């Protein structure tokens, strides 16, 4: 990676200039602790039209009270990404409207991803009582007479006299432990406050003390519905850094498995959306077919949800002898079943009235929020990594990038279902031509990456999944960051859920198709 | 057709001959109460089992298969489980209302149940304003639901209760309108007479177009009254966890559950009474041989067959459609069903006045 450093004084101007030049997609903000070189962040920007990528970094030498200018008025997704950096590194972003911790408890002391963090239990004991909801917005504002920006407390987020409802952390429709605090007037939602972190496991921190082959195991546990793609991204990144070429057979297997995983995830999305809308029969229909995908995966990888299949230099085990026949039989069956889904659920008049025009995410917002994947494509943004920056065999197969223009919940569902067909097409092009060869390249038991920064990204089941590694030549990374697929989605959800009804919140949540362990990491 | 009136009058006169009349009435009341409650529970068990099997069939599953042959004992196992569960008391809840609510719901449903004519003379409550009584009795179940939501001290319950208040009171209207349409056609409100008239042709055939429209409206409104999908917003699982009965456990929850199933039976029973001729066998004018064969089938078989056919229709709807949103539910009622129902009532009146019915 080629990271250009910007001086903190020129940072805002430079970022505004980049935005004007068409860098409208902020892929990720990576908080960094360079020890004596200061604390800062790396910003990965992309032009959504030309797909030109620019990586910039900014740092401050003040370790006690690191402060950076915010960019959340330039890119909307930065609001949550900066909260994450604040949470993990204590970087105070001047001008950020709502600088609270994103993942950790309000009463947590210290910022765990800093290199000088003290993990001792005396500082942060296991607390047995629930945290108090923080209802005060915090903002840092530059004040004329002082050098540093000062903390200003702003209006309350939710007032005590509002009718506040908790959707989550345990709720049938949040698909995991996400929590929405809603202030409602009758059925209409006035304010939404999203709380994450209920399943935060500190994976990025864990990675810094594990060797590369050990890190692989974490990726399957991020977004478990794109376990293959996640692991593919990490393997790709490490292989790129090592300069390792995998055999063509491995590329074929990885591509096919990625697409199977995508079908699996999209089927689950269809089913869960049906379930959330109250159509339980359609839910069972979707799961009936998903079971067959899982059976194929189990036969090849040994796992149904957590497969641990990709390894550095190849895959864990070769495909089984009857694999191609089974996959082909499944693909033919699935094509027939898709029509059933349309008949029973997708073309249903009740679904159409409930999902059309609900939760509209405009194209500008989709890009500004960085909502990639099916959500972005439903808003008309051609954001498929497989087309933007082809990897594996995606430049050799023919498939259509599904793009809809409406941006509502209904088109988000359609995008997923149509993508299943495209995935089947990809699989059918590859399945008969898997070349002979090794299924893995021998690597040394201890893998050390050369010094430098490396990144790779793949198209996960619900958006772009990226891996960023800062290596200091050790057997474990100095800093490793996973770009979550779900965080931009809930940032966007925050906006489009306002003024809708409680039932619409469920529809929007189901159509955005977020998976919580991927957001929380 | 066998008339059960002879049997009931025989019992009545026997009791009166051996006992003073007040004691005889008391004993009769007790016998009838026991019969109604037993019938109520038996049908509830049949319905719950049927729901599971029908739902399983729609979803390409087998349904319960482990407890007893074909899972026949599953419902009994469930009831047993429900009985031995702890009834949890909720902090800061209104204890009296909280405990009263399930009984209100159950009572309303049992009273309505006793109005159903199972066969000629086999009916507990039958008097000259029967149709009105059914509507009145079935509509006070909503009180129980509102109280359950209010007294639970839970915001989900509250929203569920308010939703069901808005929904059930609204749909009462179009249900009443479609019943009125049939009252206009039959010229009486007494349930037994309504059925009697239909021995010479079911109303859905004799009342042709307006009766059919009324039937459709009745099925939609009835579905909404029973809080079943696509109108299950008061207990919308994915939105409000369990709606108004979130905080109920054990048999208190069981009462809501049974009442919901039996309300479906009652809705179907009334539909079959009003539209499909109740216990009246299929009658085709001119085909005397066919009609006499049909008459050989006992009346309660006809009634139950029709009722379970309607129940099956309701379950089919239940397991096919997604849920509506609250504004759509109310728009459907106030913008479409009520105006259509009113116009339909007018058409039916004109048809009856002009003698355009069969």
Distance between the termini of chain A: 24 Å
**Apparent shape of chain B:** globular
Regarding quaternary structure, how should these chains be classified?
A: heterodimer
CATH class of the largest domain in chain A: Mainly Alpha
Strand content of chain A: 15-25%
Structural class estimated from helices and strands of chain B = mainly alpha
The Cα radius of gyration of chain B reads: 21 Å
Instruction: Kindly report the average pLDDT value of chain A.
Output: 85
Biggest pleated sheet of chain A: 4 strands, mixed
- Report the CATH architecture of the largest domain in chain A: Orthogonal Bundle
Largest sheet of chain B: none
Summed up:
The complex is a heterodimer of chains A (521) and B (358). With 521 residues, chain A is α+β, with helices and mostly antiparallel strands. Chain A is built from 16 helices and 16 strands.
